[in-house]
Amino acid sequence: MAMQAHPVPEVRVLDAAENAVPLLLGELREVVARNARPLVSFATGGTFAAFFRSLDAELRSGHIDGAGFVGTHLDEYIAFEPNRRGGMVHELTLRCPALRDMLARGSFLPVPCHGAEGSLRAHEERLARAGGIKLQFLGIGRNGHVAFNEPGASFEAGFHVTELAETTRADAAPTFVPDEPPRRAVTSGIRTILDADRVVLCAFGRGKAEAVKAMLQADVSHSCPASALRSHPNALVLLDPEAASSLDAAADVAN
Ligand code: PGA
């Protein structure tokens, strides 16, 4: 199912964004079936909202066993504790309250939000002790960022503190009205993301089309941090037709 010119990562263009939900749940089921309590890292953006609604239902019904994996996530605004409105964990647990239960049980590992160097290294050690990230879900910013690795970010970094790009702040602004969106965040680094055994990136909508093209079809470059994924041996990119609309060649279509 790979695009001919770019065999890595695998790219699938779905008829509609909602068709990604069963595929994403399938990815999770598979990693849980294959590993003893694997570490699964979630992306917290709006792209995954429908997935989280379904995941919540699956966890509550027991169709997916919440005790069968350990959860974590990519990034957090500076000083946004898990219960602070607008923060990544807060948004995530609004969409998927079952993950709040995992957080309370200690089986969801929140990114340390104050950015102290020691806390970031300790977080990386916790992830390593949990076996390393077996499955990493990922979105992409319209400027090509992954997590909060903005254009120019190092491909070698682990968790670190970063300044948010203006497009990123503008996209986040509605969540924070009447306040200003945050300026700084703790983010997983590209090296950490590439270390995951499996990466599944989703991009939906026309606003992501240029970033998707830069990720898949321009040179691998720091100007598009997502292009670093091209060196990952086990990555899947799920697109809707709008997000795929700037690609040069038609990718395979899956329903
Ligand atoms: P979104 O964010 O899912 O809210 O579009 C993706 C991202 O910025 O990485």
Q: What do these coordinates show?
A:
By secondary structure, this protein is of the alpha/beta class. It is built from 8 helices and 11 strands. It has helices at residues 20-34, 49-61, 88-95, 97-105, 117-129, 166-176, 190-195, 209-217, and strands at residues 10-14, 39-42, 70-73, 75-77, 108-109, 133-138, 160-163, 184-187, 198-203, 235-239, 253-254. The strands form 2 sheets. The chain has an 8-stranded parallel sheet with strand order 5-3-2-6-9-10-1-11, with helices on both faces. Helix 1 (20-34) crosses helix 2. The longest helix is centred in the first third of the chain and has 15 residues, at 20-34. It starts with 9 loop residues before the first strand and ends with a strand. The chain binds 2-phosphoglycolic acid. Residues 45-47, 139-141, 145 line the site of 2-phosphoglycolic acid (PGA).
